Amino acid sequence: MTDATYGAKLQRDGKSYAIQTRIPAGVVTPHELETIARVAKKYTISLVKITSGQRFLLVGVQEKDIAGVRKELGPLGTASITPSVRYVQSCPGISYCKNGTQDSITLAKTISDEYAGQDFPAKIKIGVSGCPRCCRESRVRDVGIMGTTKGWTVTFGGHSGFKSRQGEQVATGLTSEEAMKCVRSLLTHYKAHAEPKERSSRFIERVGTEWIGEMKKE
Ligand code: SF4
User: Fold this and answer.
1) Domain 85-217 class?
2) Is pTM beyond 0.90 here?
3) Three-state SS for 147?
């Protein structure tokens, strides 16, 4: 990756690029949608794809346009491409969904803001669901958070890829503040002890879950 292609990913054709947007909790305003549409039209973006991480992927960007696209996207164009918290997904949660038991959008935005710009050994995907129906697939995210009538349940080490794995349950019945504290403890430990490029699921398989058991006693 050169300075000219920073923030973009080379596509299958070997010459065009894709640019990811930063959309905390998967929530966009009408103004942000207009920005994406304006940029897509101006730079003749061939495909605007909604990804599994609740973000917009602008595909088919020419190399000469990468800097312009990112700049004109403004805050939307600041998605991290380093090993970091790539996204924090959220379902509508208790504010909007009739099944919701907890405020998933607010918690997801809080986590997203706290970890913006921080690097980790490997990418981290976080899913926040407002009830045990788990529409944000929290159990197969590096950090999974699910609401219940008694508070938040937090899991760690989930993975949905090649070698899928359900995350280990770390704590349950947490307030939002306690859930944030739990996420901080998990990610701090992972950051300090994981090897480069080692996703949380592989980290757990290598080191075991004793340290999570220790956290449960705290
Ligand atoms: S996880 Fe629960 S609260 Fe969230 S969208 Fe699904 S049913 Fe609704």
Assistant:
1) alpha beta
2) yes
3) strand
